[in-house]
Amino acid sequence: MDSEPVRIRNLQPEDIKSAMGLVLSEGWNQTEKDWGLLIRNTQNVCLAAEVGGELVATATAINYSNDVAWVGMVLVNKKYRGRGISKILLNSIFDKLKSCKSIKLDATPAGRHVYNKVGFADEYMISRMANNPHEDFNFDIRGIAPERIQEEDITAVIAFDKHLFGADRSQLIRSLINDYPEKSWLIKRGSQISGFALGREGNKYHQIGPVSALSAGDAQILLAGALKYLSRQSVVIDILDDKQELAEWLSSAGFVKQRGFIRMFRKNNPYPGEVSLQYLISGPEFG
C-alpha cells in the first residue's frame, strides 16, 4: 500500500459519493449538497488524492472573490494516514491560491499543530454546541420579529455580510438562501438590515449559521426565530467564544458544548471583518 503513488487531481461531481464516504466515516455533518456547492464553482479549489484508483483523501478551499479563501474538508481515509497526504493536498491548494490575498480555516484542536507547521496562526476560538432533540424550543419573542429573506433582499444581505465578514461571500450566501429559504431570516430596523441568520440541513444535524447582527439582542431574536421551527430536531451551532451572553442563553435552551475550533490565518489577515458583530459561523468548511 505504501509503495503505491499518490495522485492529486481536481474533485469532480462524480466523486461526491466517495467523498461522502469519508465524511460519514468521520461522523461529520456535511451532505452531498455541500460538496456540490464547493465543486460546482470553478473559482474554488477542490482536490482529491487517489491511490491505486481509489479516492482516499480530499481538501477544499472556497474562494471568496480572491480576497479570502477558506480551507476545509481535509479528510484522509484512516488506512492511508501517516503518508503525508494531507500535507501534499494543502501544499497543492496553497500553490493554486497564490493570487489570493488571505487563506483561513477553522481547525480542530487535534489539527492545530498540522496547520501551525504550514504557516497558520491563531485568530480566535469557536465552540460547537448541540441541543437535546427531545426538548421543545419555547421562546417569547417580544417586539420586532425576524422575517423570511425574500429574493429582493438577497443583494442587501450579501452587502451586509461582506461588511461584517470582511469578504464577498456571494456564492455561499446566495446558495444557502436559495437551497434553504425556510432557514433564511433577517431583521430590519426601518428600511435597513440589522441582522440575518441562515441555515442548512446536515446528515446528522440542522446547522444554523452564519448569524451576524448589529447587536447581541438582534442575534438572539434571529436565533429564537430560527430555532422555533426546529423543536425536537437535532441542531448544531458554531459560536464565537467571546459571545458569552448568547452562549449562556443557548445553554439555558438545552445546548451543550461538544468541542472547539480555532480560527486561523496563514501569514496575514487583511480581511478580519467586524468580529464583534459575528455570532455564529457557517461551519468550518465555509467560514
From TrEMBL:
Gene Ontology MF terms in the entry: acyltransferase activity, transferring groups other than amino-acyl groups
PROSITE patterns (UniProt xref): GNAT
Matching Pfam families: Acetyltransf_1 (PF00583), Acetyltransf_18 (PF18014)
Span of domain N-acetyltransferase: 6-142
InterPro entries on file: Acyl/Acetyltrans_Enzymes, Acyl_CoA_acyltransferase, GNAT_dom, YitH/HolE_GNAT
Official protein name in the record: N-acetyltransferase domain-containing protein
Organism: hydrothermal vent metagenome
Phylogenetic lineage: unclassified sequences, metagenomes, ecological metagenomes
